[in-house]
Amino acid sequence: MADTLTLRRPDDWHVHLRDGALLQAVAPATARQFARAIVMPNLSPPITTVAAARAYRERIHAAAGAGFTPLMTAYLTDDTDPAELERGQAEGVFTACKLYPANATTNAAAGVTDLAKLERVFETLQRIGLPLLIHGEVTDAAVDVFDREEVFIERHLAPLLQRHQGLKVVLEHITTAEAADFVRAGGPRVAATITPHHLHINRNAMFRGGLRPDFYCLPVAKRERHRRALVAAATSGDPTFFLGTDSAPHPRSAKESACGCAGIYNAPFALESYAAVFEQEGALQRLEAFASEHGPRFYGLPLNEGTITLERCDQLVPQRLGEGDLSLVPFHAGELLSWRLA
Ligand SMILES: [Zn+2]
Question: Catalytic residue among 114, 246, 314, 325, which?
Fold first, then answer.
C-alpha cells in the first residue's frame, strides 16, 4: 500500500466562508486544502450585486491569505436583474449564480419564490454561459423533509432543463440515488457536487444515542441506500460528479439550540475525509479526477498547477477547533482519519 498520495491541487466547488470573525476563523482551513473555491453568497444580507461580491472577495482575500482564489457567486432573488449578472461575469467577478428556493436553508429568506419569475435570468445565463448552481429542495411544508430533493427534481429541475436546453446547471450537494441518476442522465451540461458528510453518514447519525446537531445539515442525510449510491457516483470516475464540501460552520450557540442551524463544518479535514471513502472503495486512483479535474472542466477553468500530498498517518480529529463562540466542531470530531495533508 502506498504511503503517500500526490494530487494536482484540488478545488472546493461549494463552500460557505461566512463573514466577519467567523470568516477569519474558517477561511484559512479552506485555503490550506484548496486552490480555489466557489463561495456561497448566502450572507445576511445576501450577495446580490457585483459591488457586494467584489467587497466580499476582498474580505476573503484578507482572511485566507495569498495563494487562494475565491470564485464568487451571485444570490438570485425574484428581482435579480440579468444585466447585473452579465456585468459581473464580464468584469471577472461572478463565476456562477446560486438559486435558493426561498427559505430552503440558512439565510435563504430572500431566495426565489417561483422559478417562473426568473425566465429572463435563465435566458441570460444560457446565453452568456454562466453556470446556475441549485439548492435542489422544495420548501413545500406538505412534502416530507426526506423527499424534498426528489420532489424538486421532478417538479422544478426537469422542466427547467427542458425549457432551457443550453443552461449549465450544478445540482449542489446531492443526497439521493434519484439525484445521482438524474444528473448522470443529464448530459455534459448538468453536474453535481457531493459532500464528504453525505458520503460518510446516513440519517441515523443525527439520532445515535440522542439528538446530534453536528450531523444536521440541509439537504438532510438520507437512508443508507442513498449514501451507497453517492459513494458509487463519486468514486466512479464519471466527470459529472465533483468535489464540493458544503462546509457550513455555525457558532456553537446556533448549533446547540432548541432550533439548531443546519450545517456541517468539514473544511479542516475535507481531503482526508474524501480519501477515506475513495480508499474504502479501492478507488484512490480516481480521487484526483474528482477533486481536481472534473470541476474545472465543467466550469471551463484551467486545471491548477502544483500538487498537494496526503500521507498515510493516523490523525485524531479534535473535538473542537478555536475558542469561545467561535469554537467549532469539525466533521469527524473524535475520530481517527488514516490520511493527513502533508
Ligand atoms: Zn451549501
Answer: 246
Centre of ligand 1 to C-alpha 108, Å, is: 11
CATH number at residue 151: 3.20.20.140
Burial of 90 (0-12, 13-18, 19+ CB in 10 A): exposed
In a domain, 83, yes or no: yes
Q: How far is the CA of 208 from the centre of ligand 1 (A)?
A: 24
246 is catalytic: yes
The alpha carbon of 14 and the centre of ligand 1 are apart by a number of angstroms equal to 6
Cis amide leading into 45 (omega within 30): yes
> Quick one: which of 3, 30, 6 has its CA closest to 18?
30
- Residue 34 domain-assigned? yes
Domain-embedded: residue 2: no
- Domain containing 185 equals 9-304
pLDDT of 254 > 90? The answer is: no
**Does the residue 115 lie in any domain?**
yes
Cβ atoms of residues 308 and 341 within 8 Å: yes
Ion ligand 1 neighbours, Cβ < 5 Å: 246
Confidence of residue 1 (pLDDT cuts 50, 70, 90): low
Q: Cα separation of 111 and 79, whole Å?
A: 10
CA of 90 from ligand 1 middle (Å) equals: 25
Phi, psi of 329 (to 5 degrees): -90, 115
Mean pLDDT over all residues of the chain? 95
pLDDT tens track for 209-253: 999 999 999 999 999 999 999 999 999 999 999 999 999 998 888
- Residue-level pLDDT at 109: 79
Q: Over the stretch 284-341, which tens digit does the pLDDT of each residue have? A: 999 999 999 999 999 999 999 999 999 999 999 999 999 887 899 999 999 999 999 9
Q: Using CA atoms, how far apart are residues 92 and 176, in angstroms rounded to an integer?
A: 34
Helix 20-33, helix 50-64: angle, nearest 10: 70
Q: What is the pLDDT, as a whole number, of residue 324? A: 83
Q: How many domains does the chain have?
A: 1
